[in-house]
Structure formats: C-alpha cells, structure tokens
Amino acid sequence: MTDRSLRPSDPSFVGGHRLLARLGEGGMGVVYLGRAESGALAAVKVIQAGHGDDEEFRARFRREVRAAQGVDSPWVVKVTGADPEAGQPWLATAFEPGPSLAEAVGRLGPLPPRAVRVLGKLLARALTAVHETGLVHRDVKPGNILLGADGPRLIDFGIARSPHDTALTSTDLVIGTPGFLSPEQAAGGESLSPASDVFSLGCVLAYAATGRLPFGSGAADALLYRTVHDEPDLDGVEPELAAVLLGCLAKDPDDRPTPAELDTALVEDVPSGTANWLPPEVVRMVAERSAQMLALPEIEATLAEPATATGRSRRGFLTAASTGAAVLAVGGGAAAWAALRGTHGGGSGRPAAPGWAIGVQADLSGPGKEVGQAQLQGAQLAVEQFNARRDKPFTLQLRTADDGGSTGHAATAARRLAGDDSVLAVLGSSTDLTTKAALPVYDAALLPVLTMSAGQNLYQNIRSFVRGRPLHNTVAMKLVFLWAATSAASPVGLLMDRSGGDLSWMTIQMANLVVRQYGRATHPRVVPPGTTDLRPVLDEMRSAGIQAFVYAGPLDGAIRAARGLAGFTGPKYAMEPALDARFAAEPTADGWTVLASAIGPGAASVRDFAQAFRTRSGHAPGFWAAEGYDAANLLIGRLTATGGRRPARRDLIAPLQAAKYHGITRTFAFDSKTVGTPMLATPASFVHQVRDGAFDYLGPAPDIALPLRGK
C-alpha cells in the first residue's frame, strides 16, 4: 500500500489546521488533509515556496482566493480559510469525501435522466451564485464537480475571473479543458460572458447522460474545431432533456439560457438532504467514502506520538495503509478516498504479505484477441526469463484480466487487477476504448499503467498512465513522410471510415494537414459508421483523379477498400487495424502498405526474441508480441531498480515516466512536459507491405519530412 504520511519537510500545522496526510501534489504545491481547531476536516492547498516569490503567480492566487470566498452557495465548496500573503500561500476548503462526476461516470457509466436533471438544476444554481459575484468560472468540467449525498459541489476557481479582468496568461493559450469549452473559449477568446459557463455545463450534462463528450474525443485541435463548427452528439439523451441541452450548447452565446432559466427548464423535484437523486451504485460509492470519515477522530493526535504495541504510530497507521491520489483542485473526492481507504479495517487477522506481480489487461477473447494474446505471450516470455535468472532479487508473477475488447467489461477487469495487492504495475489495455474505460480505475488506485497499442489521445488527468507507443496522428504523419519519400503522387484520396472512431479521425486529419503543407492536393471523404458498401465513394474518388489512397478505419473496412480499389495502380495505404493476417490474405490487398507502431517479427532487432519465442511456444510470434516483451522488461527494470525492497505502487509512477530503456522494438523515453499523459519522445513507426498473402517488413518509417521526389 502507498505511504501517504507527512514527510520531514512537511509542516505540522498550516493556518490553524493540523495536517493529517498528503492527499496529492503537483507542480504548484501540495494538498493536505487537515483538521481545523473546530474539529472539521479540510482540504488545505499549500503553494510551493518558490512560487510565492513570483508576483504574477501570487496575483493569480489572490484572485483565486477572492473568487472562491465571494461565492455563497450550498452547491459550491466553501472556503474555510486562506492566506495569499503567507510565505507559502494557502487555501483551505471544506472537505468533501465524495467522488468526482468524472470518476463516477468513468467507473459506473452514465447517470439516469432524473439524476442528470437534478445535477443540472443544482449546478445551475451554483453558477447563478458564481455569476452574481461578477465572475466566470471558465473550467466547468466533470473533474471539478464532486458528488455528495445531498447534491453536487462545484470546486476549483483557479482560472475564474471577471469578464473585464486583464489576462495573466499568454493570449496564445486556450484556457480550460478541451471537450468542455465554449466555442468562444475554443476560439481563444479572452472576454468571456457567463454564457460560456452555461455551454460548459451543457457539455457536462451531456457527458453525465451518455458517458461521451458531446463533441467527441481525440486531439485537442480536433476537439476545438468540432466545438466551434459541429453539432453536439446527443444520441441516447431523452428528448426533453436533449432539447434543453441543445439550448445550452448553442453556438451563439446570446441564444443560451441563463443559469436561472436552465434551473427552471429542468423540471424535476430536488430532494432535500437525501441521496435518492443518485443511482444506488453511486450512492454506495459516496457512502463508502463518507463512512471512512467517521473513523478519523481516532487519529487526531499526529505529532510525536509514540509507537503502539504493533510498532506503528497512529499517524503511520493512517498513512502506511493508504493509496493516495494526486489532486490540486481543492475539495477532496477521489484523492481522499484513495488516501484513506483501508485505514480502519475491522478484521483482526493479518493478511498474507503480497508478492511481486505485473498485471496484463487485454482483449484475450474478443474481436481484437490477436493483439491482446500476442502482448500477453511476449510479457510471459519476459517474466519467465527474469525468473530464470540466478541473481533475481524476487520472483515475479503475471496476473491477467480479459476485458474481451468491451468497454463494459474494461473497468471490471481493471478493478480485478487494482484490487490485487500483488500487482504493482499493469500492461494494458490493448485497445483504445478499453484503455480509456479502464484508466479511471487505475488512476484512483495510483497503479502504474503502460500501454503499447492504444494510440488515442486522452485529455484526462490520468497521473499513473504512460503510453509506450506514438499517437495515431503521429503514425499518420510518418505515413505522409513515407508517401513524400517514395511517390508524392497527388491528389491523395483520404477515406475516413467513422466506424474506426478516433483512430480514423486522428489519421485523416493529420494526413490531410501534412499533405497540404507539402503543397499537394487531397481529396478527403467520410463514410458513416456501419457502411458496408464502399464502392460508390471509392468510384467517386477514382473519378476525381486520385493518384494515391489512404484508408483509416477497421479491419473489415480495409478489406472492403482493397476490393473496391482492385486495379488501382497508385500507392495504397492503411493503418494499424489492417496489420492482420486476414488483410494480408485478401488477394486484392497485394501491394498495400500498412503503417503501424508494431514492429515486424522479422526485424533484425527482434530475431533473438523471435527465436526464444519459437522455442517456448512452438510457433513464430505475432505482431505486438515484441511490444509486450518490451513493455514487461521496461516494468521489470523499474521494479529491480528498487534494490529488492518492494515499492508502493505510486512510487513507481515517476520512475516509469522518467525511464530510458533500450528495447528490441524501440528506445523508450518519455516527455513528461506534455499535457495529460507523458508522450513517447522516440515515436518510431514501422512500414509493412502485403506481398504474396503475407506481410513483408520494410523497416522504420522516415523520422523527418524528406524532400518530395521530383523537386
């Protein structure tokens, strides 16, 4: 379990609050769980000393304090104390133990319509109180909404300001969270009206009702573009609620309701002090976390307390059994639950000491089982080789969780691994959608997760996640570099099959952008999800004179595209889903080029691995097996670096994100400065071509934009 104890450098008291534990930390400072002199719990945000010397930062913090103190609403977390002039400025708020809306929906799925209406009414009242002070919150999002038994709480006024304030940030920076920004925010507008918060609240309620962002997901620029130009996706929202949300999501701020009008439009009885507005599974989550608070008075003495008969102080008992989570939005929620759960178990028996294990979550039985099974087999070989070493400091186990490629099963599979105390890190999941669905579970447990095949961009604050492969749009950029180096024929036909989700979007948007930057023409087309007859659009593209072709979509669509382009002699490209024996076996796919982040089993760097794999398994490794092998060895390297002392899960996160590892598929190094998730700083992609019913590995794709042929 993670140790959340106060460190020697931490203060014992801040502004009259006795500090009990660390809830989280970030670049700006630390959030502590504190107890005021009254006995009330508080989340105490303390800014790092260095920032106190930065007058611009201190001015922003003063503004945050004023904003939060000026709002009076039961649905806005209350400020209980602050000192922006202290050597280390601090801000305390009432502690809220409930989960965030983002965590509840991420774990349990969309809320029922009544819960969404109640949520909307109470948050509309919260915004009314915010706007009455002359402020615009500017960051209304699920992560800034905590769920309580009696209603939600809006938190975090870090970027709130009056519409007339002078910006203290760069005008080139979009402030807020992509996916929940208003069109005027997405366009970089500095002067925002309260109507901007109403649009963001509409996005929040659409997310609560469907579990999806109303303008999709993917790269930030794509999200911002769709927010400004596209209509929201409200499929599955009941008609009356959808009509209200459409009003909130109007592009013109003048066409949106005020918060008070939204409160009226959401016709629903608001429960008074009861939890019956939430579905039972969310109520249980809230109740479990609230119940933990009842035990806290027993640990009030936290200073210089002598060890008990078990050799641990009460403070140590609080923190040594906790699994903290980092937040800098004051208010508690998931961080506090993670920091305190398991602290006061009632059993007298001592559980068996956990072992050392790596978890693998993957699609092992569903439509993508070839990828998932290959990664698992590669990881198994790495673990077996490690355990065969005479100098091994511990014996390593492998735990598996099959999510079947289903988002509905992904969180369950993640909970199975997160609940196993032996599991110190996880490889997975093997698909974009299952990875996205599982990450909130791993994040709450601060369990390190490394993915090798999920290339979707995630604009979420997932602290324990590392992507060991490039994003889909980076692979698409390498595809264009390859096109430029080998043919540069244009116009390039770009077919986005929406059945492929974010992979399709990210691929075609990047390819369209980069080809045009070369000064060459494109001919982009889109087909809706579920399209089974591609011939009409392919015939139209050929009639338009395309000289090259790129398909972005699922495997079955790639096969249909190959059949529909039979006889087309220009270069033809497909993306990772086509890296499958079924595509290579299609006669019309001969000559197609597939770009992927998976290396070929015939690459020189993986030959020794391939031979060992054959010896162990009796057959050649498939695509993604070498990536699973590399991922397991990367995690093993972080575990052995502890010198044989079993680490806490959270203590592996920073070393993993700072790791540099020379694997057989690539050199792994991560850029921790990227927003959300550390990106692979060495984003190699690989070229495969179909020849005679099989894939021929051609090598890595170009890393730079090469001059066009003929120029």
TrEMBL record:
SUPFAM superfamilies according to UniProt: Periplasmic binding protein-like I, Protein kinase-like (PK-like)
Residues annotated to bind ATP: 45
Transmembrane domains' residue ranges: none
GO molecular function, one term: kinase activity
Alphabetized UniProt keyword annotations: ATP-binding, Kinase, Nucleotide-binding, Signal, Transferase
Stored CDD domains: STKc_PknB_like
Keyword hit for Protein biosynthesis: no
Span of domain Protein kinase: 17-266
Highest taxon of source: Bacteria
Family: Belongs to the leucine-binding protein family.
Protein name: Bifunctional serine/threonine-protein kinase/ABC transporter substrate-binding protein
Source species taxonomy: Bacteria, Bacillati, Actinomycetota, Actinomycetes, Kitasatosporales
